[in-house]
Amino acid sequence: MENPKEAHARRGAPWTFDPARLLTFLKTFRSQGSVYVPSFNHGIGDPVEDHTFVILHRKVVIVEGNYLFLDEGVLKEVSSVFNEKWFIEVGIDKVMERVLKRHI
User: What Gene3D superfamilies would the database entry show (predicted)?
Assistant: First the structure.
């Protein structure tokens, strides 16, 4: 990131993600059936590279993310990789409660 301090302060904004990398992970997973992906350690507040090995065991794979429906830039191509997309609407109070629990 050009400005790591600003990126940290704005963590979670669309521009703090690497959608091209996500697209590479998804395409690799689809073609090879397995891939190493980073995880996010909330204790340290940073990603952990190649932390999780994902292998296709079932016909359904769930990918969670705030911007998977964003229809701009590389995220538009990421969105096209999925056979189905589901949006789960949750009230802002519940979302904030969950964020608070996650950070404690």
Answer: P-loop containing nucleotide triphosphate hydrolases
Provide the strand spans (E) within the chain: 34-41, 46-55
Task: Please tell me the pTM assigned to this model.
Answer: 0.70
Place of tokens 């969105």: 79
Whichever domain contains 69, its CATH number is: 3.40.50.300
For residues 81 and 27, the answer to whether their CB atoms sit within 8 Å is yes
The residue among 24, 17, 19 whose CA lies nearest residue 1 is 17
Phi, psi of 43 (to 5 degrees): -65, -40
CB 16 within 8 A of CB 9: no
**pLDDT average per 10 residues of sequence, the chain (104 residues):** 68 78 90 88 79 84 84 87 90 90 74
Number of domains composing the chain: 1
The helix/strand/coil state of 100 is helix
88-to-55, 65, 77 alpha-carbon distances in Å: 25, 11, 21
